[in-house]
Amino acid sequence: MEITEIKQRLTLATVLHYYGLKPDKQLRLCCPFHKDKTPSMQIYYKTHTAYCFSSNCSTHGKSLDVIEFVQRMENTDKHNAILKCTELLGTSTQVNTTSTTQRPTQIQSQSRTQFLGNIYTYFKNAVHNSKSAKGYLEKRGLDFLKIEVGYNSGQFHHGARKDEQLIENCLQVGLLLDENLVSRTGAKAYRPFGKHGIAFALKNRSNQVTGFYFRSTVNEENAKHFYLKDSTGLYPGYPKQDTQILIITESIIDGASLLQYIKTLRKATRTEQLSILSAYGTNRLNDEMITAITELKELKEIVFAFDMDEAGTKAVTKYSTDFQTLLPNILLSKLELPSKDINETLQLHLPAEGKEPEIFSYLLENRIYLNAENQIVSFSNEKKKATEEIKPIEKESQNQDIENTDSLDTANPNKLIYKTKTAVYQIKGGLDRQLNKLQITLEIEEQDYGKKARNKLDLYEDKQIEKVSKEVAEKLRLDKHSLETELSTLADLLEQYRDQQNKEKEEQEDNQSDFKPLTALERTEAMQIAESENLIESIRQKLTQTGMIGEDDNKVFLFAIASSHIQKNPLNALIQGSSGSGKTRLLKQIFACMPNESKKVYSRCSEKMLYNVPKYYFKNKLVGFEDVDGLGEDAQYAWRELVSNGELISGVTVRDERGYSTIKELVVCGPITSIACTTHGRLYTDNMNRLFLIAIDESKEQTTRITEFQAKEASGQIDKNLQTKAIKQLQNFVRALKPYSVYNPNAPHLKLPEDIQDERRLYKLYLYFIDMVTVLHQYQREKNDKNQLIATKKDCQIAKDLMFECIMLKMDELDGSLRQFFERLKDFIKKKSADTEFTQREIREGLKISKTQLQRFMNELVELEYLHHATSHANKGNKYRINYWDNYRKMREDVKIFLQNQLDNLINKP
Q1: What does the pLDDT look like over 597-633, one tens digit per residue?
Q2: Fewer CB atoms < 10 Å away: N or C end of the chain?
Q3: Which CATH class is domain 1-102?
Q4: How far apart are CA 216 and CA 194, in angstroms?
């Protein structure tokens, strides 16, 4: 979005309303940028600027536009002010901070929604400059500072008459009508559609303007309603998905009347999840509206706010019957209006300035509930049911307020109360969830004189009940048999209550969600990455900003794997490297860039830990093991099963209620994404075959890069704030990703080299990784009719480039660290002579490697017959010679050509 477009679309009135600043009748207000007792700032709605006349103000002598005003209010730089303005506009489009002279209404490359959005901005600005529009809105009780509304003066194409593109697009959408008119100057003229009308925007799911409704301000008798041709969308927009109560009004004017008092409505219904939808008349509740309503998964109640005439009554009857069929579990109700419609009711009950109208609270609290036959039903029961389902009301239990009932009062779970004719029983501290006992701390109060007895007992023990009943009866002078009977009844009630609590907890665990909603600013920053032209390079640069030095392909590869935890088929990786090579640091840095609610990192874990966590503890989580070498055999098996099968089922022996041994199943659900580190070159084959292998860069050049960075960090040259910002931006980018199934039309043409180990599993991982690259590009990829993302040839190319080193590790019998050492060793020996014998001391000094590490490498190479003992001397030590000079570099080149040829053939396909 251009800066010029922001200034065109964001009105100063919107900015002032956001910051709670309200000018007086002369459009003056106390300046917010200095201590101001008398209004010294003048507001100019026509130019959307503000000017402070006080010489004490830091802005004196400068006219502030909307961006500068926001910048001053937020005390920030211009870039963040632009982002804030974008947030106020309700969009997440990336902002272009380069100024431009292009008119926002020239739409040669704009869509219909973009064009209508720009025109609507013009209409909203026109309200401030039209006395007739403001007078009409005031008469109807509508405040243009509280709701989004515009005015069509019919002048939107004047002054740009020579702009044929503008006129052509206005003709296309129906804002101008060609009726063969000629102006006074003899030029061609057009009739504006909806002229002198209050403009209301109809919006689609993406909150884009897709149509207009105009309410005439000059013709109240005949033609007063105008809908733009081909209009779609809803007013004031699609209801939020968490909506629990939906109020449907008959007209848009009625919807706007309620919208400006939305806080009052939510307070009256005791829920924040309340939305408003206009039906466009008694017979215009169309398919788009019905679809939007039926998709509301949290919806509890629909409230009809239709006119109190014959047409409105019939419409309520029809629609309540329809919704009873479509949504049989939804409560239906209607408002009994004291006047003809909502807007007229508002006009007759306009509140004093600064106050909210009480009429709507009254109407909602006394709404009438309907059944399928549209008959009035018992209001008290239905209202209680509705409010309890929508939002539970917190209760405070006090002894003196408890009615004399034989039911269990569970309002306070830590103070359960059971009152009978005999006594008041209070269970302090709640219940133990173990099913084999019912131990409680019980207080029994005699009602006449308030005497109390306190005991701890297990209600599953009849002897304890008999003993406590006898002791309490003697102390409080109550009937022993009544106490025994009531305690037995209390045991049954507590058992039912505990079962219900356990069931609700299980359901809550089943439906648990760690979703963290993004603010508008966070989503804007996330979209800067998601919509960037070169997404992979943008991710690489952000990862570098977080402090990841070098490892250019490895870090992007790992980031993609870590992000796959959202998918149905997540990926897993194993980082190999020598001790002190930085593998654990790389893992921690990647995990830092993942959302906090989605990751679990363990330095170590016990053998049985993975078996004993709650059922959904690891579901779609990113799990990290800093050292897989420390996992026991059972833990490695559990990890492997979670990776392969997506769940872990174990059987344990338990005692039943009769004391007999029986089997209980413990289930841990996946799938999971895991990343682990190891110093071992080879692990259990079944573990390695399920993972992507990644070798840490242990070259001298990488060491130099790391030490240089550490020096800069120690000297304060690294901006820690920039690192933190980059991490948060990457976290929010991952939060903005949604799981998708992917359709890859190129999959049949992609193969792996024949010499690769475990080709079947790696080929499947190869295809899954292409899918993940496509998911990372989800905001740039098309979808098919099954809502699947369509993988492109570019996705295949990116996947091949990032996964190439992993493919080479699978083809090489040497692990990553060992291969890097052997290549360095060959280069070192070649400088002397290919047939040179050498000792370990020479290699330690020449390659700067520790004795322990060198010993391991040499033993492995001898075992694999790459080296052999040339001579051996008790005092002078062993001498070695290279036995097998493999051409690893040529093999790499051949594999790269093999894979690239496949992609080139795809790219060249017609």
Answers
A1: 899 998 888 878 888 888 888 888 999 998 887 788 8
A2: C
A3: alpha beta
A4: 7
